[in-house]
C-alpha cells in the first residue's frame, strides 16, 4: 500500500446560512504522510476532511489526488477509506462480514475476500475474531474492525474522524501507539481530525491547526509546541504562562514576582513560557511567589504559584517535593525558553 499526494488549492466552503466553514485553503499533504487536523469545535477541521473525502464539494477551488483532479468526484470514486468516531459498523454482520463488505460490493471472489480478510485480521491483532458478533467486542476491538474495513479495498487515502474519541483514556493511549505503528508500516497517506492535542502530537508527522476556517499554523509537532505562530496556537496546544513586562532592566525584564533573563533586543509587552520550563529552586530564583495549589499527576506535579499577576503561574515539577499551601516558592527560567507571540 503506497501513499498519494493530496492537494487542495484555494478551497472555500460556505453553508446555506452563510457560515464560511473553510476560507481559501491551500494545503499539500505528502504521499505517505500522516497529517493531524487540530482545532476547537467549529474551526473547519471536519469540513476539510469531508472535502478531501468527497462528502462535500468546495464552492471554489480544486482538489487533487496525485496528478488527478477529484474535485467533482463522489466519495465512491475517490478510493478513500474512512474511520468514524462511532465506527459505523453493521450490527447484523460478524467481524469478517464487516471487513469484506466493501470487497463484496466490488465483486471480489469469496476466495479473494477471505484472503484479504485474514490479512487484515492479523494486521489489526484480531486474527481469531472473524466469526464474532459486533456486540461481543469491546470499544477498542470495534475500532480495529472499523480500521480493517477501511483498509480492505487498499485505499489511496485513509481518513479518520476523531477515531479514538469514544474510548476511555487508558485504552485511547494504548491504541494511539498501535495506530501510529500501523500507519507508518503501511506508508499510506492519512488525514485525521482531532480536538485532542496529545493525539495530534503523537500521531501527526505534521499538524494543521485551524482557527475559524483558516490555517493558524502548519508545522511539525515540535515546531507547533516550541515555536507557535501566534497566541491562538500557543494557548490551544499545551499550557502557557504569560508575563506582562513592566520595564526593561540591566539584567532582563521586570515582571510581577521578579525579573526574567532576556537576551532579545526588543522590549516586548508580554513574554511566555511553558510550565515545564519553570524550575523550583531551593532558595534564589528569578521569580518569587507563594504556592496556592499542588496537584499530583504521576511522573510530575502541577504547581500553581501566585506571583501577584492576574493568573497564578503553572509549574510542572518532577522533584517529588510536597509543598505546604502558602509556602514561598522560588522559580528559575532559562532565557532561551522565553518567547514572544503575534496576536
TrEMBL record:
PROSITE patterns from the UniProt entry? ABC_TRANSPORTER_1, ABC_TRANSPORTER_2
Cross-referenced InterPro entries: AAA+_ATPase, ABC_SmlMolc_Importer, ABC_transporter-like_ATP-bd, ABC_transporter-like_CS, Mo/tungstate-bd_C_term_dom, P-loop_NTPase, Transp-assoc_OB_typ2
Domain ABC transporter positions: 6-237
SMART domains assigned: AAA
Q: Kindly state a single biological-process term from the GO annotations of this entry.
A: quaternary ammonium group transport
A GO MF term = ATP binding
Keywords, comma-separated and alphabetical: ATP-binding, Nucleotide-binding, Transport
Q: Looking at the keywords, is Magnesium present?
A: no
Q: Key word Nucleotide-binding present in the record?
A: yes
A GO-annotated cellular component: ATP-binding cassette (ABC) transporter complex
Q: Where is the signal peptide?
A: none
| Pfam families attached to this UniProt entry | ABC_tran (PF00005), TOBE_2 (PF08402)
Question: In terms of domain of life, where is this protein from?
Answer: Bacteria
Q: What is this protein called?
A: Maltose maltodextrin transport ATP-binding protein malK
Amino acid at each position: 500500500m503506497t501513499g498519494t499526494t493530496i492537494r487542495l488549492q484555494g478551497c472555500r466552503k460556505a453553508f446555506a446560512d452563510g457560515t464560511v466553514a473553510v476560507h481559501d485553503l491551500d494545503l499539500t499533504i505528502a504521499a505517505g504522510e500522516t497529517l493531524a487536523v487540530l482545532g476547537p469545535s467549529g474551526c473547519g477541521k471536519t469540513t476539510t476532511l469531508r472535502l478531501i473525502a468527497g462528502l462535500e464539494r468546495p464552492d471554489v477551488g480544486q482538489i487533487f489526488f496525485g496528478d488527478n483532479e477529484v474535485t467533482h468526484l463522489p466519495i465512491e470514486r475517490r478510493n478513500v477509506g474512512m474511520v468514524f468516531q462511532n465506527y459505523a459498523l453493521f450490527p447484523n454482520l460478524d467481524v469478517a462480514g464487516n471487513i469484506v463488505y466493501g470487497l463484496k460490493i466490488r465483486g471480489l471472489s469469496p476466495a479473494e475476500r477471505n484472503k484479504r480478510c485474514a490479512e487484515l485480521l492479523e494486521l489489526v491483532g484480531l486474527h481469531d475474531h472473524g466469526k464474532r458478533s459486533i456486540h461481543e467486542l469491546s470499544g477498542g476491538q470495534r475500532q480495529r474492525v472499523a480500521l480493517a474495513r477501511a483498509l480492505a479495498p487498499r485505499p489511496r487515502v485513509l481518513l479518520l474522524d476523531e477515531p479514538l474519541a469514544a474510548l476511555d483514556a487508558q485504552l485511547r493511549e494504548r491504541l494511539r501507539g498501535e495506530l501510529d505503528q500501523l500507519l507508518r508500516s503501511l506508508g499510506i497517506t492519512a488525514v485525521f481530525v482531532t480536538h485532542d492535542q496529545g493525539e495530534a502530537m503523537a500521531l501527526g508527522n505534521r499538524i494543521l491547526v485551524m482557527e475559524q476556517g483558516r490555517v493558524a499554523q502548519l508545522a511539525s509537532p515540535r515546531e507547533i509546541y516550541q515555536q507557535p505562530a501566534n497566541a491562538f496556537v500557543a494557548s490551544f496546544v499545551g499550557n502557557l504562562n504569560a508575563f506582562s513586562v513592566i520595564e526593561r532592566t540591566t539584567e532582563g525584564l521586570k515582571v510581577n514576582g521578579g525579573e526574567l533573563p532576556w537576551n532579545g533586543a526588543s522590549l516586548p509587552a508580554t513574554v511566555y513560557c511553558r510550565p515545564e520550563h519553570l524550575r523550583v529552586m531551593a532558595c534564589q530564583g528569578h521569580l518569587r511567589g507563594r504556592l496556592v495549589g499542588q496537584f499530583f499527576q504521576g511522573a510530575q506535579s502541577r504547581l500553581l504559584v501566585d506571583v501577584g499577576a492576574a493568573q497564578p503561574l503553572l509549574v510542572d515539577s518532577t522533584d517529588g517535593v510536597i509543598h505546604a499551601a502558602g509556602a514561598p516558592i522560588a522559580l528559575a527560567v532559562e532565557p532561551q525558553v522565553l518567547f514572544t507571540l503575534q496576536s
